[in-house]
Amino acid sequence: MKKPSWTLWLVTTLLMLTIAGPAAAKDLQIGALYPRSGSLALLGEESWRGAEIARLEANKKGGVGGDQVVFVNADGHDVAAARAEAERLIEQSKVGLILGSYASSRSMAATEVAARKNAVYFELGAIANSITERGYQTVYRTCATAFNFSKSQSKFIAEWLAPQLNKKPSEVKVSIAHEDSDYGTSVADSFKNAAKEFGIQVVSVEPYAANTSDLSPVIFRLKKAAPDIVIAVSYAQDAILLSRQAAELKLGIPLFGTGGGHSLKSFQEALGDKVEGVLNVDFTQYEVSSAFTPGLKEFVALYRETFKEDPKSGHSLANYMGTKALFDILAKTKGSVEADAFRKAALAMDVPEGATSTGWGVKFGENGQNQRANPFIMQWRNGKLMTVWPKAAALMDPVLPK
Amino acid sequence: MSAKRLQLLGGVLFAAIIAVPAFVESRFILHMVTLIFFYIAMTSAWNIPVFGGKMSLGHAAFFGLGGYTGAILYVKFGVSPWIGAAAGVAVSLLGGVVMTLPLLRLRGPFFTLASIAFAEVLRMIAIDWRSLTNGSVGLNIPFKPGWANLTFQSGKPFYFLSLILAVAVVFVAYRLRHSALGFHLRASASNDEAAQALGVDTRRAHFIALLWSSGLTGLIGVFYVFFIYVVEPSTMFSLTLFSLQPALNGIIGGIGTIWGPVIGAIVMTPFGEYLRFYLGTIQQGLNYVVYGVVLILTVNFIPGGIVSLVRPKRSNRSDGSGSSSDTKEAR
Amino acid sequence: MELIIQVLVSGLLIGGVYALISVGLNLIFGVVRIINFAHGEVLMLAMYAAFWLNKLFGMDPYVSALLVLPALFLFGVLLQRVIVQPIQEASANMQIFATVALSLILQNLALIFWKGDFRTVQTSYAMSTLEVMNIIISVPRLIAFLVALASILLLYGFLKHTFLGKALRAIVEDNTVARLMGIKVDRLYLLAFGLGAAFTALGGILLIPFSSVYPMVGGPFTLIAFIVVVLGGLGSMSGTFLGGLFIGVVESFGGTYVSPALKEAIYFGIFILVLLVRPQGLFGKGKGTEEIGLK
Fold first, then answer.
1. Is there a contact between C119 and A41 if contact means CB atoms under 8 Å apart?
2. Torsion on CA atoms A323, A324, A328, A329, rounded to nearest 10
């Protein structure tokens, strides 16, 4: 009874270890590294779906440079795993290019591996500024950075909100409430910098742990700080909790979300009519001027067809758009991922704003960062997350939140 | 298996290990073996207090203290990682004293619980002390290859560094186990009061064992940070990665023994990585389900770990594993 | 002053739920003497059950308790019988690992079956509040507190005045003697585990109107429950109740006046301090704690 049980699984382990063979040689293999288990599984999976749809679509049209694209999927559920997986993708699966990765901390570790091995890393969803601040020649990012988020927010506060409140931008007081993982922290830091540029005062910063079941301390502290608006940087469950407790404890100060949990349908469902008027800045979502986002409608249709449900958030769209940009570059290099040829093709790419499915343009700077990814401001209106600013992408004008 | 044959086998294995980088081209295999060495070192260091029946689930605390010390000194103050390693050991020893002195009054499950709390407090402090640790965003080891910076283009230096670490820690554990201290610890594990009655200062023995354990774990932490390039709170103070995993390796291999942790790390590290590659992407979470089932089966059917199968029961079973001795402690 | 009272009230309300979940753990810990690291996962399952009953059949979460509690009682019995009983005689370390493995399995099965989404129940009363002398009280949190209080009192009465309850207490006091006295210890283990799971499940039911459920929701609650049990003293229901309130209040004040990010660190710190200064727990009787590892 005892002996077979362990020998059995030892043998199976060894067996399983040996059957890892490479895929057919004719395909263009790309590593796809996302957190797909653990606490970030939800949006990690959603992000992967965007890339997957772009892949299926390209393959249907005959592939990229004549080759079918195959993803070698990897689960970067924590930092150590992301690092190990990047290593495995490049060394064992022999991919010369990895895309990913939704979570900034995972991306930092994985891009580090890729850069040291001169493999191309295409970041489609992680927003920490530092990813493209290290000057690595093979790391590119199509999506907006945390600083882009903060800049959009600050600009909106200075140009639209301040006049509405009959104040100068320098008289507007802002508090920041953020969850204290890398996402919340780096966005909060970016906001402090961006606010400085526009002369907006940051009167208090309240970090908290996202897995808590009581955020009333944050509400009490915000009441004491008495700002005009609160910048909230939250994951899914804490966004709901913060808004609910703000309503319960009669905070009376509008919340301005920063992507993450504030864009999710579950946020709207959980808050009911209390969601009305909540502002948010994020990757492009689905209620947006269709003239400014060609291809978005088709993406949604493809998503429904492939996964039999509606997209959960704009993460899939951002990853889809980025993957398509990647395929455009690969088409030019005829599938080559050799670092110099790829870099030449990437830097030559020049797509104006309003010409992709997210409305973002594509123009990589020397640091590999897309200079034309500016997040839009959205507002929950009648249960939908409507794009309200800037005008070119907006479906309606913003209103002053209660 | 006789001692002689065991030695021979060990010698052959060791030669093979040394030769691996010469033949293996795949950096991935090197990476995997390096990870195994790290986990052998970690598990063996964790295992030292277990000789005396003290099972910590808070060793991530020492790991993180060491890693953070090395990284902060290097990234913020430009101090060589080699000096940083010494400093890392010093800081984790200090952490060891702070944690150990008071917690030694606790036994069994309460010691285990308090050790978890200790590591959690450090994790939250690392998140909050932004000016020192850069908070949750963490610190990145810049890429400046060279031995002076403990940063390499090739995977081979870390293969050997981690091998040396693993051998050194196992050696220390071996020496400790067969020293007077080791006997005191094992005496305390089987019956603390009796050992005290015989004049053994068991608290002192536990204290010294935990200090060895914390210092070594801190040292491993420093090297690990330079291996993985990034230091951030949820990784360095991770309950699952560096508190639970060494303990799981120990259980699977056989806790309280010398070779149990080694075997446990050799079996479980590739197993865990494998499950993640091939099950984690098929169905998210499935890898952990398999992991959990394997664990429960092990605990149920081979509580002495793999070593208990290789080395059939001997009369001297004060190893703390599955013996009736520390059952008493729990009930 | 008003703020201080408001902070106190908030802390007490959440503390009531902590107390309830901890009472469940205390029963299991005290009677079966096992550190159940999968405790939070029982809570998670109860929350999911309430969520799905609401989503699929429109059942009010409080009503769903009628189905969820018996179901999780049985689940607890099953856990004891299948997972814990075979290792009852193994070392404490082995038991810890079996339950850690169990927690890993349950969390990830939840991830497989229900995905990583954060699920929230919509009710008409989710955000309703009372206002008493300028102090705002959330209705679902108040309900949670009151039900927790009532059910702990009920358990207290059960343990004090019924034969089964007395037998359970006898096991807490001295397992061996209880066995010698002819108490069917193994069966009572089943009862204790089942009851413990049911109380924890009730905690989940009370949380779901104002808290989201997701596969990893249980982890922090497991740690909180352990801390409360140690603070309150093993086998002491009143101690656990006070311990739960204490943690809730510490969390609330620490979060408001020190930093919201450090509130967990503060009560972990207090936990370690208490273990050092008064290892039998703040409110514990100190009896029977010796043999399980506290001196």
1. no
2. -20
Fold identical between A26-144+294-348 and A147-282+376-389?
A: yes
Contacts of B129 in chain C (CB under 8 A): none
Helix (H, G, I), strand (E, B) or coil at C91: coil
DSSP per-residue codes, A165-208: TT--GGG-EEEEEEESSHHHHHHHHHHHHHHHHHT-EEEEEEEE
pLDDT in tens, A147-195: 999 999 999 999 999 999 999 999 999 999 999 888 888 899 999 999 9
Query: Is-cis flag, bond preceding A390, omega within 30?
Result: yes
Determine the pLDDT at residue C294.
38
How do residues B181-217 score in pLDDT, each as one tens digit? 999 999 888 888 888 888 888 889 999 999 999 999 9
Q: Could you tell me how far CA B273 lies from the centroid of its own chain? A: 17
- Domain assignment present for residue B20? The answer is no
Residue B60's domain comprises 28-330
- CA torsion C46-C48-C50-C54 (nearest 10°) is -170
Chains within contact range of chain B (3+ C-beta pairs < 8 Å) = A, C
Is-contact A360 A144, C-beta < 8 A? Answer: yes
d(CA A234, CA A232): 6
B170: in domain? yes
Report which secondary-structure segment, H or E, holds A139.
strand A139-141
Contact B188, B210 (CB under 8 A): no
The domains of chain A are located at 26-144+294-348, 147-282+376-389
| Contact in structure between C55 and C114 (CB atoms under 8 Å) | no
Which residue of B293, B300, B327 is in closest CB contact with C105? B293
Backbone angles phi, psi at B145, to 5 degrees: -60, 150
Contact indicator for B286, B300 with CB cutoff of 8 Å: no
Domain residue extents for chain C: 2-292
Q: Which helix (H) or strand (E) holds C97?
A: helix C92-114
pTM of structure? 0.83
First to last CA, chain A: 68
With a CB cutoff of 8 Å and minimum separation 6, the contacts of C218 are C38, C39, C40, C41, C42, C43, C44, C103, C107
SS3 of residue C274 by DSSP: helix
Reported ipTM exceeds the 0.90 cut: no
How far does B318 lie from chain A, in Å, by closest CA?
A: 22
Residue A232 forms beta bridges with which residues?
A177, A257
- Residues forming beta bridges with residue A381, ordered by sequence position: A384
**Domain C2-292 has what CATH class?**
mainly alpha
- Cross-chain Cβ contact A37/B138 below 8 Å: no
Q: Is C68 helix (H, G, I), strand (E, B) or coil?
A: helix
CA distance A307 to C216: 24
Q: How many domains does chain B have?
A: 1
Query: Sign of torsion, CA B165 B168 B172 B174?
Result: positive
Residue closest to C100 by CA, chosen among B193, B292, A238: B292
Contact (Cβ atoms closer than 8 angstroms) between residue A341 and residue A333: yes
Q: Do residues B179 and B54 make contact, with C-beta atoms less than 8 angstroms apart?
A: no
Q: What is the DSSP letter of A133?
A: S
Report, at the CATH architecture level, how domain A147-282+376-389 is classified: 3-Layer(aba) Sandwich (3.40)
In a domain, B12, yes or no: no
CA B169 to chain centre: 9
* B9 within a domain of the structure (yes/no): no
Q: Phi/psi of residue B243, each to 5°?
A: -105, -50
Residue B288 near residue C104 (C-beta atoms within 8 A):
yes
Inter-chain contact C104–B321, Cβ cutoff 8 Å? no
Which contiguous run of DSSP H or E holds residue C224? Answer: helix C218-232
B110·C294 Cβ contact <8 A: yes
Torsion over CA of B223, B227, B231 and B237, rounded to 10 degrees?
Answer: -60
Judge contact between A210 and A242, C-beta under 8 A: no
Instruction: Please give the class, per CATH, of domain A26-144+294-348.
Output: alpha beta
